[in-house]
């Protein structure tokens, strides 16, 4: 796992890596130990807000920054952040969730270079990342050394170039299975390949594009809708701080799209219809039918938007109305 990540991120002994997320999270864990494995140094942050990270960027001058998109968004929007704070970096890697177009835009405007979006899983480590000098915005990059990938349709056939399918992974870095769960292990592993359960497509240059987690895809009137796409659009609205999108069961449409949002401090509260129209102008029929404003966005232990928690919240509200 460490060798694959070191190769994909092109780490060497001249690097100094700042992992802006918890070392108990696999993303920060493998990036940090990959750095140590090639003789690079690491900077260990005690927390992941601007008050902690900005002084480390200014004083230690790391060459690589690795963060979850949600934490990188907060750092980018920190009023104390300036372009010079990021001037020592040759690479800013973000993974763990989709990098929205708005995060990419705001970070590039602030720092002067693009976010290098990557893709990985706890079961195998880093899977894809762009070469730092050849980033394709919107892509999670190319396959890293030591990893073999296949995109397969639901009937097990290879997907055409540009076509979507489930991503299968083969690597010596894979875990041996799920703890005390033989059924889950048998369902995920087959002939040395691991079924990620994630939807991907690849272009003719071998760059991969994340299409969402199969279990989280919303099916509305027979069309597949990816939560991350709708969240990314809502984040472009100047009043929206965070967004989480889930599907709500509907007897007519299968599922309707509900968006939970939090508002930026001091920003005016847009009407629900204003937000729906804003999204509809960008993604058409995929736009949410409902908007719910929260005081705080629920997040997982690793800082991602907790879509499963939002789903439970939605189901609980539905049952109470029944």
What's the structural blueprint in terms of helices and strands?
Layout: H1 2-8, E1 16-19, H2 26-37, E2 41-44, H3 50-60, E3 64-67, H4 69-76, E4 91-94, H5 101-111, E5 116-121, E6 125-129, E7 142-143, E8 147-152, E9 165-171, H6 182-188, E10 189-190, E11 193-202, E12 208-213, E13 218-220, E14 223-225, H7 227-234, E15 240-250, E16 254-263, H8 272-283, E17 290-293, H9 307-321
Structural summary, described in words:
By secondary structure, the chain is an alpha/beta fold. It has 3 domains: 2-143, Rossmann fold (3-Layer(aba) Sandwich); 147-211, Luciferase, Domain 3 (Luciferase, domain 3); 217-321, ANL, C-terminal domain (GMP Synthetase, Chain A, domain 3, 2-Layer Sandwich), CATH 3.30.300.30. The chain has 9 helices and 17 strands. It has helices spanning 2-8, 26-37, 50-60, 69-76, 101-111, 182-188, 227-234, 272-283, 307-321; strands at 16-19, 41-44, 64-67, 91-94, 116-121, 125-129, 142-143, 147-152, 165-171, 189-190, 193-202, 208-213, 218-220, 223-225, 240-250, 254-263, 290-293. A hairpin with a 2-residue loop joins strand 13 and strand 14. Helix 1 packs across helix 2 (26-37) and helix 4 crosses helix 5 (101-111). The longest helix has 15 residues, at 307-321. The chain starts with a helix and ends with a helix.
């Amino acid at each position: 796992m460490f060798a694959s990540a070191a190769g994909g991120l092109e780490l060497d002994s001249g690097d100094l890596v700042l992992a802006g997320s918890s070392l108990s999270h696999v993303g920060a864990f493998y990036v940090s130990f990959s750095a140590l494995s090639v003789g690079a140094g690491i900077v260990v942050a005690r927390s992941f807000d601007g008050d902690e990270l900005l002084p480390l960027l200014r004083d230690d001058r790391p060459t690589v920054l690795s963060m979850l998109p949600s934490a990188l968004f907060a750092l980018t929007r920190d009023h104390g952040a300036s372009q010079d704070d990021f001037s020592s970096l040759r690479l800013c890697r973000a993974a763990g969730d989709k990098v929205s177009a708005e995060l990419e835009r705001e970070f590039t405007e602030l720092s002067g270079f693009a976010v290098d979006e990557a893709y990985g899983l706890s079961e195998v480590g880093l899977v894809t990342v762009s070469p730092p000098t050849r980033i394709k915005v919107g892509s999670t990059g190319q396959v890293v050394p030591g990893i073999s990938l296949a995109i397969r349709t639901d009937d097990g056939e290879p997907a055409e170039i540009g076509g979507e399918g489930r991503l299968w992974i083969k690597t010596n870095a894979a875990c041996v299975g799920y703890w005390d769960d033989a059924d889950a292990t048998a369902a995920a592993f087959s002939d040395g390949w691991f079924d990620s359960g994630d939807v991907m497509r690849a272009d003719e240059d071998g760059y991969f594009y994340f299409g969402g987690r199969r279990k989280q895809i919303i099916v509305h009137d027979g069309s597949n809708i990816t939560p991350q796409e709708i969240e990314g659009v809502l984040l472009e609205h100047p009043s929206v701080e965070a967004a989480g999108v889930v599907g709500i069961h509907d007897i007519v449409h299968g599922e309707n799209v509900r968006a939970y949002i939090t508002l930026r401090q001091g920003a005016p509260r847009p009407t629900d219809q204003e937000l729906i129209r804003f999204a509809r102008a960008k993604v058409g029929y995929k736009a949410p039918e409902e908007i719910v404003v929260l005081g705080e966005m629920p997040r997982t232990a690793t800082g991602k938007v907790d879509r499963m928690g939002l789903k439970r919240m939605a189901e609980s509200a539905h049952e109470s109305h029944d």
